[in-house]
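Proteins fold reproducibly. Take a tokenised chain:

. . .
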Amino acid sequence: MEPLFHFLLLAVALFVAYRFLPKRDGGEPGRIVITQGRIGHLSTGFEKTWLRPPTDQELSGLVRDFVRGEVLCREAIALGLDKDDTVIRRRLRLKMEFVSDDIAAQTVPTDGELNSYLQAHPEMFRVERRFTFQQVYLNPQKRGDGLANDVRQLLARLNEPGVGADAGALGDSQLLETDFKSTPESEVSKQFGEGFAATLRKMETGLWQGPVESGYGAHLVRISERTEGQLPPIAEVRDAVRREWDNARRLAANEKFYQELLKRYSVTIEPVKSGKQGKPGGG
């Protein structure tokens, strides 16, 4: 019964508020005009959804539903139901921002503009350094004081011709892979730690070296290929640059649109009180 009671209470409140609303000019109801353009818009929306044009009966239903929505929306605004409603305020704000979004979307950048954006924001599009390497794990806890000697012996053996192919069988058991192919530096850092990746940047290629420390312990590492990071040409990243350019253009258009609207208002912001003031039981 409680939900029903709340519903009835709301209905009574709306009825009372409506009774005391000022009447429209001359006591005549508002005028709603459904233009051919509006009817065409409703028909197009139906066709996009159902992949066919509406029948005459369906189109009449769309028009009736639009009128119903218009009437209820106008009366809700007249009753002040749109005031202090966070959801409605958010939707209205989004619709206003969509206006400036549409304006920004009409601009098509040239390749020159996109290349300039690429050069101005290289950190967004730079290709990471990549490593192709093998690693052999040595467990410091298991090997104890003999770790240094084991490292020397294993390095000598791994650097013998033909031995490196079976490197995975020479180390201690682990969850990590032995072979890594064209792995981005960020992924190496994620798996082994930044210190490990930093060491790989400086290591000589084609030779087993170590130990290289990680969060797991010690590793013997052989880098077969290291591809340095670089800024790719616009032809390789054009779509990604276009997405970022469009987004930056949209944000700039929104801000400019807002600043122009803000000029119509005088904004007064009262000082924010200290959080210590007005606390219950404060000394």
